[in-house]
Design a protein that fits this description.
By secondary structure, the chain is mainly alpha-helical. 67% of the residues lie in helices and 0% in strands. Helix 1 (2-8) packs parallel to helix 6 and helix 2 runs antiparallel to helix 3 (37-50).
Length: 198
C-alpha cells in the first residue's frame, strides 16, 4: 500500500528506503493490535509529511489513493477466486487453504500492479506542484474523494460476508474510484488545476 501510494504519484523512492522500511515496520506492529487501514493511512501520512515535506491534505490524499488502489486489486482477486470456486465469500474466508492461496494471489497481483506502474512509467505527477490543497471550488472533488474513502475505511466490515465488499463496501469503493479518476484526470490534464507552489 505504501509503495503503491508513492509509485502511483511518481514520488522518489530510492533515496528513502530506510524511512520507508521503518514506516512499514511501525505500521505492521500497530496493525497487530488494531486491525484497521486507518493506521496504515496515518503512517503513510506521517512519512510523507516528515520525509517528503507534504502538507496534511496532499499527504492524506496520496495515502488514501494507495489504499483505494490496493483495495481495488484485492477486491478483483477475491471476486475472481469466488467465481472460480463457485462458493460464497464466507466459505472462502473460513477455508484455511483457500484463504492462504487468496492472500498469495493478492500479494502477487499487487506486486504485478506496482511493477506495471514502474515499468510503463504510469502514474500522476500533478501532486508535486502542491504544497497544500486549499478548500475551494476547484478542489471540491479531492475533499469529497477523501471523505468517501474515509467512510469506506471506517465501515469496511459492514458487509464483510459479501464478496464484492470483502475489503471495503462496494458502494464506497465504487464512488471513491469514480472520484479518483475524475480528480486524477482533471488535475493531470490541467482542467481546473491551480498550483499553490510559490
Amino acid at each position: 500500500m505504501l509503495l503503491i501510494s508513492l509509485v502511483l504519484f511518481r514520488i522518489r523512492v530510492k533515496p528513502y528506503w530506510k524511512q520507508i522500511s521503518l514506516a512499514v515496520l511501525a505500521s505492521s506492529m500497530l496493525t497487530l493490535y488494531m486491525d484497521t487501514p486507518i493506521i496504515l493511512v496515518c503512517t503513510i501520512c506521517i512519512l510523507l509529511m516528515f520525509v517528503w515535506k507534504y502538507q496534511f491534505v496532499p499527504a492524506l490524499f496520496i495515502a488514501i489513493s494507495g489504499y483505494i488502489m490496493a483495495a481495488l486489486v484485492s477486491t478483483l482477486v477475491i471476486v475472481c477466486v469466488n467465481f472460480t470456486q463457485a462458493e460464497a465469500y464466507i466459505d472462502i474466508k473460513d477455508d484455511l487453504l483457500i484463504s492462504i492461496v487468496t492472500r498469495c494471489l493478492i500479494l502477487a497481483a499487487k506486486c504485478g500492479f506496482l511493477l506495471a506502474l514502474y515499468k510503463l512509467r504510469l502514474g500522476f505527477t500533478f501532486i508535486s506542484n502542491y504544497t497544500k490543497i486549499p478548500l475551494g471550488k476547484e478542489n471540491v472533488g479531492i475533499y469529497l474523494y477523501i471523505i468517501v474513502a474515509v467512510i469506506g475505511m471506517v465501515y469496511r466490515n459492514a458487509f464483510r460476508d459479501h464478496v464484492f465488499s470483502a475489503v471495503m463496501p462496494i458502494q464506497m469503493l465504487s464512488m471513491a474510484i469514480v472520484l479518483f479518476l475524475y480528480v486524477m484526470l482533471s488535475k493531470e490534464f490541467g482542467l481546473h488545476c491551480r498550483s499553490t507552489r510559490g
